[in-house]
Amino acid sequence: MEREVKTFVIPNELCKRAGITATWLTVDQLSVRAFEKRNIKLPDAPSNFLSDTPSSIFHLRQEVILFHPILRKLVNESCGVFIAVQNLIVNKNPADYKVELFKMSRQYRSIIRACLENLQDDLSEAKGQEKEQLQNYITIFYSVECIWHLCEILFVDIIPGNLVLSQLLEWIRFHFPKHERNAATMLASESVNLETHQDYWNTVFGSLLQGRVKIVRALLRPHSSADHPTFKLVDQVLRAMPICSGVNGTSINEFNIQWRHWTMDVQSKIDAKLFSSEKHLDLIMRLVVGEEKAWIEIQDHCEAWYEFLAGWMFYTEPTAKSFELGQYAKRSITKMRVANNLKHLDRVILAAMEFDIFQVIKEIQHMTENGWFVAHLSDLLFHSSRLTSLEKEVPNFSAEKLRESFILEYGITLMGHKSLWPVGLSYLDHCTHDGNQVIALLLPRIPLDNEAKTLKIIREAKKRDLNDVVQCICKAQGMLSLKRGRIGNALCWALKSQDGPFTSYLADKFLQDYIKNGKLGSTDLLDNLGSCMLVSDRLIFLGKYFEFHKLYQTQKYKEAANLLISLLASKIIPKYFWYVLLIDAIPLLESEELLFSSNDTFTIMHCAEQKEDLPELKDKLNILKLSAARNLARALTYEAQNE
Amino acid sequence: MVSIINSIDTGHEDMIHDAEVDYYGLRLATCSSDNSVKVFDIKSGVQTLIDDLKGHFGPVWQIAWSHPKFGNLLASCSYDRKVIIWKEHQRKWAKYYEYANHDSSVNSVQFAPPEFGLILACGSSDSSISILSYNQGTNSWDAKKIQNAHAIGCNAVSWAPAITPLFGNGEGDQKPQLIKRLVSGGCDNLVKIWREDGDRWVEESKLELHSDWVRDVAWAPSVGLHRYTIASCSQDRRVVIWTSDDCLNWHSTILHTFDDVVWNVSWSLNGNILAVSGGDNKITLWDQNSEGVWQCISDVAKGQGQINN
User: Fold this and answer.
1) Of A138, A158, A178, which residue sits at a domain end?
2) In what order do the strands lie in the sheet with B119-124?
3) Residue A123 resides in a domain
4) First-to-last C-alpha distance (Å) of chain B
5) Which residues of chain B are within 8 Å of residue A38 when distances are taken between CB atoms?
6) What is the ipTM of this complex?
7) Which residues cross the membrane (chain A) (predicted)?
8) Tens digits of per-residue pLDDT, A596-632?
9) Which of A3, A4, A20 to mutate against chain B (most B CBs within 10 Å)?
10) CB pairs under 8 A between A and B
11) Whether A35 contacts B277, CB under 8 Å
12) Which of A281, A301, A386, A643 has the greatest CB tally within 10 Å of its CB?
């Protein structure tokens, strides 16, 4: 595919003189700055670019129109339909969901329609640059709607007998509603000389080209000369026009015969100059019989070649099959002499009519709506088996890969937005090849603005079994809380991240804070550690020590004493905390009630001996030894008496 | 359309050599020939200078942010042969660790993927590469050196993403071992892949193709299972894309031969677009089409374009 290179200029003097370089920042941002590659051989001296001019860095971002608030609804609602499509195809075979897919396609279109209506509403109040922008969006989405509708007719809908004309007319009527609107206004005015209306004949011919014969007749009736024989004859002729009703072979043949008879009849009337007194009526008659010259005369009434095409086919090839559409389209383009002047929309429509799906997809990538259209349409075409059938024609082509590449790109675009990222995830989830890896790369990069958002991101990561992502985010949050001095919060995150060393580090902080000010913080958290504490020995110790405090405070001295002994016997006491535990033992040893057995007391005495060099213990050591000795005496007496 | 969303006046008095945003894109660090490193807050589009870090005595070539799970550490390397790791405390950065074991200018610093721990690779003009690992238990840094990695000098280093090997040694529930790898480019015109093997670093592959100094190498983030992609650029005006399924057999594709020296290559976050900057004062963006062919992209709908000055 030919791609046109867009050039963007960085308005900076230094960049111009020195050169530039770029690095990627986020999903859709690029950082650009002046650059001079210095060589090791260059002297370590100020560069040639030392100056007073500021050295700036420029952050560039592609403009995503989908991020405009007015298009938010389109993004969200189409995501709903997209998911419905994916759910639809999970359990069914293609034959079953063809009809459903057609309905989905119409839902997509009604979302576009609603979006256009919103844009129109806002346009009336907008001013200046904003107005221009909205106008631009309207142009884009009108094209999208128009192409989607045609693609729906040709590639998604099932057309009985491949007779494409009625759908084609419906498409034209929908996208050129002007004539119908004008006709309605004129007829409603109940005027008797309608031809004085400046759009009168325009509307008559417009309706004629759209195959609305009844409206043409209705419009001719309020003409001031309607009683004139020529007018009456025209009305008669038009009333007698055969209509193709059935789709089977016999009814088509029958229709063709009727049609031939009717046109021959009209032609003989034209030849007999029965209409020549009224040039407009004469033209109508010559058009309906398909006279080349008449169709050249009418060209100026057509806004687009496809409007011409639909009218011309209605009167000359009413039973054309869809696969013949391409050749007629080309013929119309030649007749309208617009071959050298085809705009983007024209090219896409022609490609669709030629059933060149590849070309359609290639062209619609350039619609500047950031891949919304190509992603949704190619997904729909893929599920309608329209893309898979191309695999036979094109070597190395994978329909699935093509679909995924568009969905992936669209999803990635949405991932770059601060609140649309969950929508992006929904799309990436339906990329079976690379979706999960892309999520793993992008999800942790979403800035964590607040706790609610952080938790949401973690939930999404868990849903997809991205445990590494969960751990990384929790650890980062823990570090952040720590930096802010909120140790309890940090511990909470550390536990979620399952990071042993980090948890130990924080548990140490708790214990050291306790040494400093005699208080254990975040009691709620410590109280509810449960099995979480198993992540690190230091945390187990902290948890147990907290439990000891609780027991002591609620005067459950016996249990407190037991816990203290089991802690002393364990191997998880931090060096710096030994003396605290030993000092804690003193009041328990001195308690009125006997709390420690002789064995327990030996344990305490043994520990005290081992740790007697601890400087912090120095002035308490004697008291500890004395208490222990007294308690031992009590315990031995008690044990001797109760043996 | 592409628009400039931010234009940051750094206030550096001389050429900026590197500008990096942190993991979430909220802070920007810059380094310059004026020997300083600056940190800016760029949240919500307003730039505020947070700190001006002075510690180097020569041009500072490159900077790197650590993953936030290690706190926002910043590493810088300089012509003064030193690597400094800075740590933030209440919006001020202080030297956390200084590494001065290179005999010449240090050109490149890169933190390893966070899965591996807090590890920094440094490439120097003394032809060696250092790998500094932080040990949480002892709160100390351990340095390993790859001597003679590139004759005349190493210009750039880049870490491989942490991918678990397809047929790892993990049996049952055991988590397969992650393998640490990095790629380097140097003045010997070579691109080399290094792998950690026990407590040593060994040369795993030597990629020969460039005919002049290799200026930058960038290992792409991994999307798609177990496919490795590296971009290298050189003074021979070429950018080469290296791909491999096993890290042993590498396949090369010349992305393009440019009109001038190519200085830098940078992968987008998910590795689908490569930004190439060269002496022709142009930055071009490249992606791979569905047939796997690399192409310069300019698709307005995708909003990517050539940036020219």
Assistant:
1) A158
2) B106-111, B119-124, B129-135, B140-146
3) yes
4) 16
5) 15, 17, 33, 59, 61
6) 0.77
7) none
8) 888 899 888 888 888 878 888 788 888 888 998 999 9
9) A20
10) 250
11) yes
12) A281
At A266, which helix (H) or strand (E)? helix A249-271
pLDDT tens, position by position, A363-416: 898 787 889 999 999 999 999 888 888 888 877 788 888 899 899 999 999 998
In B, minimum Cα distance to A10 occurs at B309
Residues from chain A that touch B4, judged by Cβ atoms under 8 A, are 10, 58-60
The β-bridge partners of A263 are none
Nearest-CA distance A270 → chain B (Å): 53
Give a yes or no: residue A132 inside a domain: yes
C-beta atoms of A15 and B309 within 8 A: yes
- Tell which of A114, A129, A158 closes a domain: A158
CB B243 within 8 A of CB B282: no
**How close is the nearest chain A Cα to the Cα of B39, in Å?**
13
- Within its chain, how far is the Cα of A54 from the centroid? 39
Alpha-helical runs (H) found in A126-199: 128-151, 165-175, 178-188
Answer for the pair B150, B190: CB distance below 8 angstroms, yes or no: yes
A159 pLDDT more than 90: no
CB B155 within 8 A of CB B62: no
In this complex, is the C-beta atom of B165 within 8 Å of any C-beta atom belonging to chain A? Answer: no
Please check whether residues A115 and A152 belong to one and the same domain. Answer: yes
CA distance A303 to A200: 17
B4 interfaces chain A, CB cutoff of 8 Å? yes
Would residue A585 count as lying in a domain? yes
Phi-psi region of A371 (alpha: psi -120 to 50; beta: other; left: phi over 0): left
State which residues form the domain around A19.
13-62
B132 phi and psi, to 5 degrees?
A: -105, 120
- Tokens, residue A571: 């191997």
Do the domain assignments include residue A17?
A: yes
- Is B283 an 8 Å CB contact of chain A? yes
Domains and CATH numbers, chain B: 16-168+176-273 (2.130.10.10)
